[in-house]
Amino acid sequence: MTTPAVKTPAAASPAARGAAATADYLDQRTSIGTAVKGLARKIFPDHWSFLLGEIALYSFIVILISGVFLTMFFVPSMAETTYDGPWAALNGVHMSEAFSSTLRLSFEIRGGLLMRQVHHWAALLFMASIVTHMMRVFFTGAFRKPRELNWLIGFTIMILGLLAGLTGYSLPDDVLSGNGMRITDGVVRAIPVIGSYLSYFIFGGEFPGTELIPRLFTLHVLLIPALILGLIGAHLILVFLQKHTQYPGAGRTDKNVVGYPLFPIYVAKAGGFFFIVFGVIALMAATMTINPVWNYGPFDPAIVSAGAQPDWYMLFLEGSLRLMPGWEVVLGSFTLPLNVLIPAVVIPGVLFTSLALYPFIEAVVTGDRREHHVLNRPRNVPFRTATGVSILTAFVILILAGSNDLIATHFGLSINNITWVFRAAFFLAPAASFWVTKRICLGLQRKDRELVLHGHETGRIVRFANGEYIEVHRPLDDYERWLRVNYESTAPHEIEPAHDSRGVRRKGYRLDALRQRASRVFFEDRVEPVTPAQLEAAHSHGEHDALEGPDAGQTPALESTVAGGGRRLTEPEDHTTTDARKP
């Protein structure tokens, strides 16, 4: 009896054997294989909006790569020199070594201008993606427990990004960046008591001093990138340690994650997406000029150009300064320049502080201490959505005000009239946008309720034998119904009376009353999700009109949200009386 031949696997190549031996060597000494195995099996949900954070990460990588190239040729010195190079318009002009090396990078170093523009466009995209990513987190409630710390980390990265931009576009030492630093000096000097000392410390003497560029260079290439890198690492670690948030849908709860494993799905996606982001930035840099410093010339404190604006993410501060009237308060021998303090310190401080603390404010108002891993639909949290839109509206108004001179020249308008319009809009537009957004959210909730109760209109009319005409409605499937009813409608906080049964004033009543008033502001206007009983009555064709809401007798306005009226016919479907919030 012969034994059948057994095929042996082909011998591995030397490279494969070397990689396997290296991996085995590291695993035996670090146990890295267990960590890699767990990381590769990590499940992540799939949604396009999660790419916003990845765009920020990849843009920062492009910033680091291009920044290393620029650092090799840039000279961070304010020592004076005379330019003699290919840009003939500036030949023989006295300028700093910083500006001269910037011109050399732009015209004499092969690929230098491309890398300058790659660096600048990547910085703009980095800030844009961070702001958009934070908007997504805010409007969907992804900042709720246990992610409050990650919200603060992201907020700090955004602030550091602003500082990185401020220190970065000031390095060429041209007229535009010099005007920006002159404004910065004015803001610092406006700080009571310590302002002049801070200015002297920052500039190494009277503005502009001789130490500014080297100090900005150290901050821009060393300190701020190191802090951002550390915070990005902490942010990613927390994302891996905590469950990833996911959008509401059938089968998605706070106890699971529905998605795909990191390896190989998201590894392949992330790698490809990085090159897409890099390619888009390179295409922008190759085709769209940005910050042509050779047109501005070297910085001269006596020159102030019209139509000069900083990058978009700092334009709100410029607009705030332009809108403020020239108010000053003289106290003895001290002058408080309110025309600088209020727009440059108070307004940004209020906007940023409210944004940073909002997760904690909402947690206190709701009293919710549970973990949340399923995101909110913005329409189901009207107050938060309206608050976010009002903050964005104020931000946009300030950005437009920062370009009031360009608006005036391009459209032939009076700059004074434009300024007054923006002053009024800064106070009125956020309030109006808050009210409109809140009403839109409540309207969308009522539309969802109507769809759950009666289904989609089909446009098909049926006539009965008695001559009555009925429109046929198509019921929602289980998945769509789940999406539209599976949310919590938080009611205003109820508190105990101020005095107990013995007439003694209850301890902590004032704090409870304050929290109750705040909860009414947040949640008094709301639409309750459809209950199983209401859904069953709606499918009985009109009988639900007599059905009372869950809070009948307490909130009469709620009964008006129970959709009804008229007789409707639905397409045949096996309706059950089970919980409508389960798929």
UniProtKB/TrEMBL annotation:
Its EC number is 7.1.1.8. Residues 538-547, 568-583 have a biased composition (Basic and acidic residues). GO terms for cellular component: plasma membrane. GO terms for molecular function: metal ion binding; oxidoreductase activity; quinol-cytochrome-c reductase activity. Its cofactor is heme. The keyword Heme applies. Residues 537-583 are annotated as: Disordered. Pfam families: Cytochrom_B_N_2 (PF13631). Keywords: Cell membrane, Electron transport, Heme, Iron, Membrane, Metal-binding, Respiratory chain, Translocase, Transmembrane, Transmembrane helix, Transport. InterPro entries: Cyt_b/b6_C, Cyt_b/b6_N, Cytb/b6-like_sf, Di-haem_cyt_TM. It is found in: Cell membrane. GO terms for biological process: respiratory electron transport chain. Residues 22-248 form the Cytochrome b/b6 N-terminal region profile domain. The chain crosses the membrane at residues 51-75, 118-139, 151-171, 217-241, 262-286, 340-361, 381-400, 420-437. This is Cytochrome bc1 complex cytochrome b subunit. The lineage of its organism: Bacteria, Bacillati, Actinomycetota, Actinomycetes, Micrococcales.
